[in-house]
Design a protein that fits this description.
Six copies of one chain form a homohexamer. Chain A is mainly beta and 68 residues long. Chain A is built from one helix and five strands. In chain A, 9% of the residues lie in helices and 56% in strands.
Chain lengths: 68, 68, 68, 68, 68, 68
């Protein structure tokens, strides 16, 4: 499946922290850049996310704020 | 001002394209990665965005989808 | 690629309307339900979206408001 | 009140799971489709969401990613 | 209909600007605060938005970034 | 840093509630208006948010739904 989301950064999972409903996933996109994604705990478990996994951080372009 | 947004990627503006209401900003975060942000044309003009500007792409962690 | 986005509705493209920066895509998820997605014109063109295409409408669960 | 959100799917609450800050609401929009919405626990309680409630899943069109 | 969105600010439409796909709506929530909402042109037309209309600016709490 | 986000409301933190992954921040933007922002617990702690802090509630214009 190809996605309309313009931004798809390759990275590796560095850390998975599960809450009750949400989960925080740290993704190293390029040393030393780490991206934080908050997804549902259910998704984290269904994807079986664990440190070292190759993943994509997918971000729709309307969600990005530009700072200058 | 410090922001709660966990993800703030440094980059350079590669291209600014203005529509009637929105504008598309291409930001090179690290060769060869280019991020697309769709913001209002008004913001693009107020920030005076042009190719070569040093900017940040700011993304709240709840906006990121993880693909594996 | 498997996505963390919990909501992935299958549907067919009913209409594609291109603006200067954005594009509006009408997706029939189930007669008579039609979903509207606003994506970049660039994505609409890269995906080659046209009426009748089988697509998925992907929605992260944090983006949904519940009305009762 | 009429909303600008283009997408308002009618459905029934199938499950409510409360976390500390957020809550996950499963909404059956049409058998066998189930939509997951993550909202604040506070909202879930104020709306008194429970299994069987008729609700709307409201999604702004800029939040939808198209996969093909 | 009651909404899960925690933030519903009352205001008046100050300006409506239509693009091809999107529309920019300026809402005065309290003098001198003006909020900008970018919605689809289709929604702006269906709601018949015009200067002086009493409206609500509805914002889900997960969409807000905190700056300090 | 100047932001592309059109909406930046000044306010004071009224309440901070930490969950496991997320945190709920109540911001009084103007008596008696209180805005709720759900951010990561990590951000709430890094910003050291506490009652009485002067903060900004930053909202991108594409995230706002208009109700009439």
């Amino acid at each position: 499946m190809e996605l309309s989301a313009r931004n798809q950064l390759n990275g590796k999972v560095k850390n998975v922290e599960l809450g009750m409903i949400t989960a925080s996933i740290k993704i190293e996109v390029e040393d030393p850049n780490v991206i934080t994604a908050v997804i549902t705990k259910e998704s984290a478990e269904k994807l079986g996310l664990k440190e070292g996994d190759d993943v994509k951080a997918i971000i729709k372009s309307t969600e990005i704020i530009v700072g200058k």
